[in-house]
Amino acid sequence: MDKPKYLKGKLYFLFIATFIFILCITVRIPRTPRMYRAVPQPRGNLACPLRLSERTITPLNNTKHLLVSAYMDQRVNGFDVRIIGIFKRDSIQPLHCVFCCVSELSNTTPATILQHSDNYGFPYVTTDVMCRIPQNCDATHVSLLTQPGGERVFNQTWLPIRNQKTKGKEEEKLQFNFTVCISNLFGDYNNVLQFAQTLEMYRLLGVNRVVIYNTSCGPDLDRLLQSYSQEGFVEMVPWPIDQHLNPSHGWLFSESGGDVHYFAQLTTLNECIYRSMDRSRYVLLNDIDEIIMPYKHNNLMSLMEMLQQQHPNTGVYLIENHIFPKNHFEPSGRFHLPRWNGVPGINILEHIYREDPDRKIYHPHKMIVKPRLVDWTSVHEVIKNSGQQFKVPMDVCRIIHVRVALRKSLTLEQLNEDKRLWDFQEKLIPSVDKALRRAGLGQS
Q1: Distance (Å, rounded) from C-alpha 262 to C-alpha 17?
Q2: 146 phi and psi angles, rounded to 5 deg
Q3: Which of 64, 124, 223, 417 is within CB 3.0–4.6 Å of 260 for a Cys-Cys bond?
Q4: Could you give the count of Cα atoms lying within 13 Å of 273 in the half-sphere of its Cβ?
């Protein structure tokens, strides 16, 4: 046989064999679903995490439960990590924690499941899953198993463990002084003008960050939110709870039905506290149309320095809610600005008449909290905390809440004139104008 032809034949055979081998390997590698971020698998041990959840709500495999986020939390003796979730109350079973220790899996450890006491009768409840990290594990991610066996690990999704350096971190090193947590923006809410006025008022009071859990909103408000988000003042947290459960539009199951209280408001409030724990000295828990307003100080820091000096062991400050009915207008019309006519929403500067709360019935508060002293919160009070609570007198600080009247039988003469917002109008109005122009709203 001719030698050159023989060598050419061998090379051709080798090329074909190599091509088939590479093709077989490529076909066998599974594709990672788009909802997860692929993580390379190190050689020599079990790789982790195989699938890292990038969602804000993640279904837990083989259960009826939802996971939200995981945080390092060593304040509770015997535990290291707190996983915040939404669990179906009648379907809770034993769970097991497994960790990614940089590049290999840990042994499983039993989980402790803690249901929050407030559920208002709904089938689903805010739940904390407490985990202990095994020794010699530098944990970066965590997952939960219904069975302790490792053979099911690769079907699981993993949550990153946040607040890794919370323990022992000095308070002076925190990024923000004040964070406002606003939960559960949903439906066609499009109250643009009041929202812009509220955010700019908070900026003047010294708030550094506003966190909003957004299911949906109106188109104009969405433009404003995107503008604030790009600026960095607002942190938008997508909250697609309606893709997983039937959320209630009311707060009580017996009246409104559904799977979970008010678009899982209790979950978002608690999640925001832990999200802010490693970043913010104080957290304000209130609604999108409420302003926690100091009346004897020009900013929130001066208020809190005074309160902390007088009540040094306090971690929860209860602020009384006061309604300013939106159907009563300031008579001069001095703040009815034509350039705002085309902006949807309430102009809070036009509403100066305040209801006195009915002291004969329960009157709700909102809160300023030190997040590191809070374990669980509800809407109007903290359920578990390590510090004291203090009701701030209404002449020191109260909530300005412009909305539908609560005590509808009161006449204008029975209301109190309250022009506190006007003290800030010289800076507030130009700031609102700038925010609206930036979002392409209102007249230029």
Answers
A1: 62
A2: -85, -20
A3: 124
A4: 28
Length of the chain: 444
Three-state secondary-structure class, residue 381: coil
Which of 8-17, 152-161, 206-215 reaches the highest mean pLDDT? Answer: 206-215
Contact 153, 48 (CB under 8 A): yes
> In the numeric block, which tokens belong to residue 241?
């709870």
Tokens describing residue 108? 């499983």
Q: What residues contact 102, with CB distance under 8 A and at least 6 apart? A: 138, 140
Q: DSSP letters along 184-226, please?
A: EE-TT---HHHHHHHHHHHHHHT--EEEEEES---HHHHHHHH
Distances (CA, A) of 374 to 91, 220, 221, 382: 27, 35, 32, 7
CA distances from 163 to 124, 141, 168, 195, 276 (A): 26, 12, 11, 30, 9
Structure tokens at 389: 């609570």
Closest CA to 197 of 439, 440, 430, 438: 430
Q: Which amino acid is at 207?
A: V
Tokens matching residue 222: 């969405």
Q: Cα(281)–Cα(121) distance, rounded to whole angstroms?
A: 34
> What is the C-alpha to C-alpha distance for residues 160 and 168, in angstroms, rounded to an integer?
20
pLDDT band for position 148 (cuts 50, 70, 90): confident
H helices, E strands: number in the chain: 7, 25
- Write phi, then psi, for 293 (nearest 5 degrees): -115, 120
Q: Which range has the worst mean pLDDT, 103-117, 165-179, 429-443?
A: 165-179
> What does the alpha-carbon distance between residue 412 and residue 414 come to, in Å, rounded to a whole number?
5
Q: H-type helices in 29-82, by residue range?
A: none
The three-state secondary structure class of 280 is strand
Our CA dihedral for 71, 53, 154, 142, rounded to 10 degrees, sits at 0
Residues 419 and 289: their CA atoms lie apart, in Å, by 17
